[in-house]
Design goal:
Shape: elongated
Helix content: 25-40%
Strand content: 15-25%
Distance between the termini: 21 Å
Largest sheet: 10 strands, antiparallel
């Protein structure tokens, strides 16, 4: 079976692995020594987007930058790219590395008459426009969390490697006058986790195939030493963001240690009574993630490690319910940014999350053989269901209520979730909107949402999915991989609210990967149950003619192939690893 990974696996020519260091000169490295699981690959620019001079006077041999080299400068290198500056001209160039990556840049300079270092200004960007911008201003370019705009010195007949951020584009400008600098290469230093894509998705709709792969790649880039929210910003472990990311990791990469490592970090950084990241819903997401990873992988010993904290957290949550069975959680009351100024929506969503959290807690207590606690938490969930919030028009909150059984899913889908198409969506809670649509059996409608909303980002040049996306901003907006004409809006710099105004907006955010997990679970119909021992396969092709793919299980790779017959029924072929129980 063909695995569709072409758009997410980069071509590279130098590969370096960072791991355990050997003893050197009697120095011993203890278990406390810091090491990295990342690898580094050097990428050649794919195209020149812009240059300050087309005359050949200050920028020469520009196409040499696009040729793959050997990474080593030499005294007899010929026909190198050259920057030539004067008092009046400080040349600059904008490079495109073809797709979003995490890392920095390695610049190598050849031999020249002056042995002084060459000063260059570097500007990294997730969009071409961001790389052309200055810090601050109306469009809010920043150096927050990771530097994207700074000056370096490149040594004579040598190299320098700098930068650690998320980017696709790099602008390089000469800072000083009277420079004649032969540049051998300006290669991106791509830092990532070298792991195989075990899951896959392919159908007769290429747009959906691309969306599945881009979602997986978005999370892959954020699998650094910990599981981050974004590679440009915030580069932090946000537990709520982790939930869609973990579902994508389960789907594309299988059981990976970065999940437990990041969950444990959040637990240890936030001793009770603190909420994780200061947000009560994020502590609930921590519990729900644990239920998900146990369902998928069945690691009982790891679940037992969480028992004391889990019980204390559930008991703490139970103190934030009033006499009318309403949640009254303190801390930062937050679902996602678009609902952050809607108190009724926040309450509705938190009420639903409390129900789901206590139901999950009861199930985990049964697994841990704490039956009295299981009974206790089931009772709490039942009591919470007696209160029905009144929010009936916010997609995010209504989706959670449908998932928690506080609202009829089909009614929610018809009256709220499908209203105005993909307007008022969010990349984070889009996943739960899709889940609620699946509960309403509206698979064709959910596929339309995926094509229109996540596909809308691809139409604008995205190679990873964004922190937020408002389809109303698309009208008359330019692509992120082109310089935007003055007659058009800049989709990156001209829009955004809350924490993602203008260029501060992250264009690689793991919480936006929901369709990857959703399509494997609901279109391929792969439902993991029984602590990973059993898979129930119930495909829902919607308007697709066929779909096939692979899925990592605790016993190995499961492969399925579904084809729709003329009468609308589906013929399924299954290739399952030994030991895995299949239910159809």
């Amino acid at each position: 079976m063909k695995i569709i990974l072409q758009i997410i696996i980069p071509v590279f020519f130098i590969h370096v692995t960072y791991g355990q260091l050997p003893p050197v000169f009697g120095i011993e490295y203890s278990d406390k020594s810091s090491s990295s699981d990342m690898v580094k690959t050097y990428l050649t620019p794919q195209r020149i987007v812009w240059q300050s001079d087309d005359t050949g006077e200050s920028i020469k041999n520009v196409k040499m930058l696009l040729k793959k080299g050997n990474g080593q400068v030499a005294v007899n290198d010929e026909n190198l790219f050259r920057f030539v500056s004067t008092t009046d001209k400080r040349p600059g160039i904008l490079l495109d590395y073809g797709k979003e990556i995490h890392g920095g840049v390695k610049i190598s300079m050849g031999i020249r008459e002056s042995k002084t270092p060459l000063k260059l200004r570097l500007r990294f960007g997730e969009s071409a426009s961001e790389a052309m911008s200055n810090i601050g201003g109306k469009q809010n370019a920043t150096n927050e969390h990771s530097l994207r705009d700074f000056t370096i010195e490149v040594p004579w007949l040598g190299s320098i490697e700098v930068g650690e951020t998320g980017f696709r584009f790099l602008r390089v400008d000469v800072v000083e006058a009277d420079e004649d600098a032969p540049i051998k290469s300006i290669d991106a230093a791509f830092v990532y986790r070298d792991i195989p894509y075990l899951g896959s998705f392919e159908s007769n709709d290429k747009r959906l195939n691309d969306i599945w792969a881009v979602g997986a790649y978005t999370v892959h880039l954020n699998m650094q030493n910990y599981l981050w929210d974004g590679i440009k910003r915030d580069r932090l472990v946000w537990v709520g963001d982790m939930h869609p990311e973990v579902m994508t990791i389960n789907t594309a990469f299988g059981n990976h240690e970065i999940v437990s490592k990041s969950l444990d970090l959040a637990r240890d950084q936030h001793p009770l009574p603190q909420w994780m990241n200061g947000i009560s819903s994020y502590s609930m997401w921590w519990l729900l993630i644990h239920k998900n990873i146990y369902d998928y992988h069945g690691n009982l010993s790891y679940l037992k490690e969480q028992e004391t904290y889990m019980i204390a957290l559930l008991d703490q949550l139970s103190t934030f319910i009033d006499k009318d069975n309403k949640e009254v959680l303190n801390g930062h009351r937050f679902l996602d940014w678009p609902t952050s100024e809607k108190p009724e929506a926040i309450h509705a969503g938190l009420q639903a999350m409390m129900v789901m959290t206590f139901e999950a807690g009861a199930e985990m207590m049964t697994i841990l053989e704490r039956n009295s606690l299981s009974t206790k938490y089931k009772k709490v969930a039942k009591q919470l269901k007696k209160h029905r919030p009144k929010d009936n028009d916010t997609k995010q909150a209504v989706a959670l209520m449908a998932l928690a059984g506080l609202q009829d899913a089909e009614k929610a889908n018809e009256e709220v979730l499908t209203k105005d198409g993909v307007q008022r969506m969010s990349t984070f809670y889009g996943y739960y909107i899709l889940e609620a649509m699946a509960k309403a059996n509206d698979y064709t409608g959910a596929l339309r949402v995926i094509r229109d909303y996540w596909g809308g980002m691809l139409d604008l040049g995205a190679t990873t999915f964004w922190e937020d996306f408002d389809v109303l901003d698309v009208a008359n907006s330019g692509r992120i991989d082109e310089l935007v004409p003055t007659t058009n809006f800049d989709i990156h710099g001209d829009f955004g609210e809350y924490c993602y105004i203008g260029y501060r907006h992250s264009l690689c955010h793991g919480w936006a990967s929901g369709p990857t997990a959703w399509m494997s679970q609901h279109i391929l119909g792969i439902h993991i149950t029984d602590a990973g021992e059993t898979v129930k396969i119930v495909p829902n092709l919607g308007d697709l003619e066929w779909a096939k793919g692979s899925f990592p299980t605790k016993y190995g790779i499961l492969k399925v192939n579904h084809k729709k017959n003329g009468d609308g029924t589906v013929r399924t072929e299954i290739e399952a690893p030994e030991g895995l129980r299949i239910i159809k």
